[in-house]
Design a protein that fits this description.
Blueprint lengths: L1 E3 L16 H14 L11 H6 L11 E6 L1 H19 L3 H10 L4 H7 L29 E3 L5 E3 H13 L19 H4 L6 H18 L3 E3 L8 E4 L6 E3 L6 E3 L12 H13 L11 E3 L6 E3 L6 E3 L6 E3 L9 H9 L12 H45 L9 H18 L1 H7 L4 H31 L11 H25 L3
Parallel strand pairs: 1-2
Antiparallel strand pairs: 2-6, 3-4, 5-6, 7-8, 9-10, 11-12
Helix pairs in contact: 3-4, 10-14, 11-12, 11-13, 11-14, 12-14, 12-15, 14-15
Organism: Salarias fasciatus
GO molecular function: ubiquitin protein ligase activity; zinc ion binding
Pfam family, one: UBA_ARIH2_N
């Protein structure tokens, strides 16, 4: 459960890169409509509901973060700049360059530098010739950094203008070949023509300052000015309070626990590179293993029942569902060929492809299940709204169905990201433990999915007529929620990236 300690209310009317309060209100209204068609908010409210049923109260995903506006972020940066500038007796512009170099670890800077041996000042040029255009100019028309490379003001202006137009901020450096000395902002700003370009430069600087800060991350949402601040940077789930974007704080990509940032990048790159190879498993249909009729998967659950012969089987391995509970560990675990290292390169290549497709198929299947279960969630939302409007109970009376669908999505999302983790994991006792916990989670999620879909069918009058679940069925569903969440937390506690 992420804890949002958002404090942006104090600056809600302040200018955030041109964002006004009326735009924020419009987007907030639209957010309620979006919640009707997906389960993006499945982390909200469900955890406390499950904990009340006795689940382990420790949540491995709990993470404290704060959502800051642009001006609040500026104040955080300015405070640290002033601290370093005063301690090192340098200008704020130079202090910023030092902070960027040390990723804004103020304590490290103060521990390493009691004082600078040589202040960072703009040096007087030793020659009257510009090092770029080779023209002899007046001394007051030449500018030099502490590296002693002298250039005329016109060349400096052209150099800075070109780089800033290309999106450069902190990276604007000396023009001399092989000189990487970065230029402080109080040197660059007077050289830029026009306020528009200067404003762009300030925005690029802000972007670079935040991206280099070990405790800050820019929200990746489109045109969103919010900055996320944490005490300890980790690969944890954060959510923007303004645009509701959910992402991993460490890499700013989609949240991916239990897989670590480097591994998920490798996996997504591999999936993109091998997309054509994996096309054949993207179909929604398979043949019934008993009567061979073509079956389409129209729900998230992998427990399939043939509409013709009523045979119950697993969508993934096509095994008989009656014996599937005892064999679930085998269904989700890839069986390595121990003798593959002694076989030909062609055989090794085929084995490598077989292994990848095994994990990719399960990864993709859970992704599609999430999409299908989002439709179930929407139906449940609509049915609850209809019943409340017809005075057939209150929202609280039907909250258990709402929570069950959200928890199912939350658990399945975690399960989806266990497959890249398992694919790259080295064989050994730790992988066996992970695969065991993965199989346990998968089994409980399928049970929960089956119960949610049946509950949805009851509420729509498809099974046994119109009406709510019996008290025992409702209790069974809530107990299954508790078990599934326990399995999810246990796996994350043991294997979540720290």
């Amino acid at each position: 459960m992420s804890v949002d300690m958002n404090s942006q209310a104090s600056d809600s009317n302040e200018e955030d890169f041109g964002v006004n309060s009326e735009e924020e209100e419009d987007e907030d209204d639209g957010g309620e409509e979006e919640d009707q068609v997906d389960i993006a908010s499945y982390y909200e409210g469900v955890a406390s509901d499950v904990e009340q049923q006795g689940a382990d109260s420790f949540d491995p995903e709990e993470y404290l973060f704060t959502c800051l506006t642009y001006k609040e972020s500026q104040r955080v940066l300015t405070d640290e700049v002033n601290t370093v500038a005063a301690a090192l007796k340098v200008s704020p512009a130079v202090a910023k360059l030092i902070l960027v170099h040390f990723h804004w670890h103020v304590s490290q800077i103060l521990d390493r530098y009691v004082r600078l041996s040589r202040p960072f000042i703009h040096s007087a040029p030793q020659s009257l010739q510009c090092g770029v255009c080779l023209q002899i100019v007046r001394r007051d028309a030449l500018l030099a950094l502490p590296c002693q490379h002298s250039f005329c003001k016109a060349c400096w202006e052209q150099h800075c203008t070109v780089l800033v137009k290309d999106g450069m901020g902190v990276g604007v450096s000396c023009m001399a070949q092989d000189c990487s000395l970065q230029m402080p902002e109080d040197f660059v700003l007077p050289l830029l023509p026009g306020e528009e370009l200067k404003d762009k430069y300030r925005r690029y600087l802000f972007r670079d300052y935040v991206e280099s800060h070990f405790q800050l991350q820019l929200c990746p949402g489109a045109d969103c000015p919010i900055v996320i601040k944490v005490q300890e940077p980790r690969a944890r789930r954060v959510q923007c309070s303004r645009c509701s974007e959910v992402f991993c704080f460490k890499c700013r990509q989609m949240y991916h626990a239990p897989t670590d940032c480097a591994t998920i990048r490798k996996w997504l790159t591999k999936c993109a590179d091998d997309s054509e190879t994996a096309n054949y498993i993207s179909a929604h249909t398979k043949d019934c293993p008993k009567c061979n009729i073509c079956i389409e998967k129209n729900g998230g659950c992998n427990h399939m029942q043939c509409s013709k012969c009523k045979h119950d089987f697993c969508w993934m391995c096509l095994g008989d569902w009656k014996t599937h509970g005892s064999e679930y560990y085998e269904c989700s675990r890839y069986k390595e060929n121990p003798d593959i290292v002694n076989q030909s390169q062609q055989a090794q290549a085929r084995e490598a492809l077989k292994k990848y497709l095994f994990y990719f198929e399960r990864w993709e299947n859970h992704n599609k299940s999430l999409q299908l279960e989002a439709q179930t969630y929407q139906r449940i939302q609509e049915k609850i709204q209809e019943r409340v409007m017809n005075n057939l109970g209150t929202w609280i009376d039907w909250q258990y169905l709402h929570n069950a669908a959200k928890l199912l999505a939350k658990c399945r999302y975690t399960l989806q990201y266990t497959y890249p983790y398992a694919y790259y994991m080295e064989s050994g006792p730790r992988k066996k433990l992970f695969e065991y916990q993965q199989a346990q989670l998968e089994a409980e999620i399928e049970n929960l999915s089956w119960k949610v879909e049946r509950a949805d069918s009851y509420e729509r009058g498809v099974v046994g007529g119109e009406g709510e679940l019996s008290a025992s069925d409702r209790g069974d569903l809530e107990n299954q929620m508790h078990i599934a969440e326990q399995r999810r937390r246990t796996l994350l506690k043991d294997f979540h990236d720290t």
